[in-house]
Amino acid sequence: MPSQLQKAFRPPPESCNFCAGIRSVPRVSNVDPDDFERRYAYGAGPVIVTDATANWTAPEVFDYWFFGKIYETYGARRGAARCQFFPYKTGFRSLQEALSLEEARVNYEPGTEPWYFGWSNCDPVILKVLREHYGRPYFLPRASENNAVDWVFMGGTGLGAHMHVDNVRLPSWQSQLKGAKEWILAPPPECYYSCDFLSVVVQTGDTSKFNLKVPLIHL
Questions:
Q1: Less crowded by CB within 10 Å, the N or C end of the chain?
Q2: What is the value of pTM for the model shown?
Q3: What is the spatial distance between Cα 203 and Cα 27, in angstroms, rounded to a whole number?
Q4: CA distances (Å), 26 to each of 90, 95, 216, in order?
């Protein structure tokens, strides 16, 4: 069955126990990997780790112009061209177009259109450059898998992703490198009366874990 149809005909959960009783998102720091694995890693509940980016250079180095330069240098490679690109509500047709904005729009000057987009980096050369500035979060269980594809999302106020389900195989983590972002997590329709909607704002330096294997809907 095509992937889009798999999402449309997503099987319902056997029960709503995976989200029942979750009413807030804990914030932790200096957490031991074994403790994280036991308490948070594979459960449905989200968690925010506040100190995972402390030794990374990405918060200082990464910005719109950094990515523009990287993809100007390496973006024509065949590997980079195969990566996924999500324009959301911008109308951008490609990552190259999204990374070619005028400075006024990048800086959200009055009268310019907002922007927010994301993409997967599946090119090993670009991945090597990016991972010089961040690494595997220290709290992840020692036996957990490491994906060869990383995702980047960036933009400012006024736009964001639509409410959606991420159909992924493993739990995921996301680090907020600049600014702040609001996550809204919703249970699937069949669990609306058993589980709460959650809203959480992640700040610069926060790393959030969401178990996207279970059918939490988010924007």
A1: N
A2: 0.85
A3: 11
A4: 33, 35, 17
